[in-house]
Amino acid sequence: MSSKEKFFEHIEKGYTTKGDYITMGAGMFNGETVTNAFVKIPLKTLNRHGLIAGATGTGKTKTLQVIAENLSNKGIPVLLMDLKGDLSGIAQPSPGHPKIDERHEKIGLPFEASGFPVEVLSLSEQDGVRLRATVSEFGPVLLSRILDLTVTQEGIVAVVFKYCDDNKLPLLDLKDFKKVLQYATGEGKKEFQESYGRISTSSTGTILRKIIELEQQGADLFFGEKSFEVDDLVRIDENGRGYINIIRLTDIQDRPKLFSTFMLSLLAEIYATFPEQGDSDRPELILFIDEAHLIFKEASKALLEQIESIVKLIRSKGIGLYFVTQNPTDVPDDVLGQLGLKVQHALRAFTAKDRKAIKLTAENYPDSEFYDTKEILTSLGIGEALISALDEKGRPTPLAATMLRAPMSRMDVLTKAELKETLGKSKLIKKYNDEVDRESAYELLNEKIEKAQKEAEKEEKQKTTSRRKTSTRKSTRMNPVVKVLTSATFIRGVLGVLKKVIR
Fold first, then answer.
1. Judging by DSSP bridges, how do beta strands 384-388 and 341-344 pair with one another?
2. In Å, what is the CA distance from 15 to each residue of 49, 106, 286, 305?
3. Do 225 and 434 contact (CB within 8 A), yes or no?
4. What is the pLDDT of residues 442-479, one digit of tens each?
5. Cβ distance 266 to 307 under 8 Å?
6. Which of 69-73, 79-83, 409-413 has the highest mean pLDDT?
7. pLDDT tens-digit readout, 211-222
8. Which of 65, 103, 193, 413 is the most exposed place for a label (fewest CB within 10 A)?
9. Cα dihedral value 201, 207, 211, 214, nearest 10
C-alpha cells in the first residue's frame, strides 16, 4: 500500500460518521488534494464549540461562510458577526468561476451555486433589524461586570435594582438607571437610607462616569425597548433551511465595550431562555464571533470569568460558539480548552514572536505521522487549513490538512438595491424597528420628585400665610401698665388720697 493510499484510508476511517454531517473538503497529502478523502464534521458534535484561526487573507471568512451555508442546508440556524461587512453576499448565489470548478473537481464534490435565507440585524443606526435589550434583563451582576465595578459599587447596583423592584419602577434604558442613582443620593436620600442603608455619593459618581463611558460607545442605542427575543434567531424558512442571521458591526470596530456588552447579554439571554438539550443529534443554533480578540482584549477579569462560565455551560442548551481570530493565542486558555473543532489557516513567521506563536499553536493539535505541524502551518495556501474535530464519541479526529470547498453563495457584499430587497422581505423589521419609550423609572421618579416639590411648596405657602395672619391680628391682651392703672385696687387707693387732701 502506497503512502497516499495509507493516508486515504487514515482519513476515511477517522472521519466516518453514523449520523448526519457537513463536509468541509478533502484531505491533502504532500501538498496535493486526495480526491474523495472527505473531511466530515458530525452535526452531533457541533455544539462543542470551535475556532477558526489564521493570518489575514488566508480565507477565514470564507471558511465561516462555508460552515454557515452547510448548516443552513441542514436546517440549523446561524448567527454571524459581520465586522468587515463582507458576509451579506450569502443572500445571493455565487456567480461561479473556473477556479471554483477546478477546486471542487479535486475535492470530489459537485459545486452548486445557491443563495440562502438571510436576516440582517443591526446594533446601531445602520439598516437592519434593531437589536435592543433592557437594563432589567441584564441584571445587577452582569451590568456590574460589564462596567468593571468594585465590590462596594456592585452592592450599590444591587440596591438600585432592589429599590426598582420594590417600587415597581421599570429599568429599561440607561437614562432610567442614571436617574435612580441620582435620586438615591439626592431627593430620595432619606428614603434609601431608611430602607437600604447609606449610599456613598463618591461611589454613585464613579458608576455614573462608567455608564457615560459606555454611552459614548453607542450603548444608549442598544439599551431600551423593544427587546429582541432570542427565539427569533432559530427560524426556519419554507424550504426547511435555517436562517442565517447577520449582525452588521462595521461601525463598532472601535467600540469593543459595546461589542462585548452585546455579546454577553445575548449569550446570557440564550442560556436563560433555551431548554436543556443534553447530547442531542444536532445543535439548535450556531454563533460565529468574528474578530473574537475584540471581546477578550478589552475584557476585565470579571468579564472573562463570565464568558468562560457561559462557554462551559451553554453547550448543554444545544448552542455552539465559534471564535474567528488571527491567532489561537488571542483566545484565553480556559476558553480554548473547551473548543472541539479547530480550523487553522496559515500563520506567517515574520518575527521571533510569530515563530513562538506558531510553536504554541502546533502544540494545540494532535500529532500526525503524515505532517510536521509547525512546518505545514506556514506552508498552507489560501482556502487550505489544518482541521481537527471530534468524532461522535467525543474523540479527536485525525489531523487533516484540508482543501476547503468553496462557498455556494456570493463572496462579497450586497449592493444597496439588494440590501433593500432583503430588508423588504424581513418579518422582523416590522416587529422591532419601531422604538418604544414607555413610562419607566426616569419618568416615574421625575413625577415623584415633582409631586414632592409641589407638596413642599404647598406646605411652605400654608406656613407663610399662617405667619402673616398672626402678625396682622389685633392683640386682645391688655398692656400691663394700663392693667395696673385700671385695676380696682389702684382706683380705690387714689380716691382715698384725694379724700384726705380735700379734708
1. antiparallel
2. 18, 18, 21, 34
3. no
4. 777 777 777 766 766 777 777 777 766 665 555 455 55
5. no
6. 69-73
7. 998 888 778 888
8. 193
9. 150
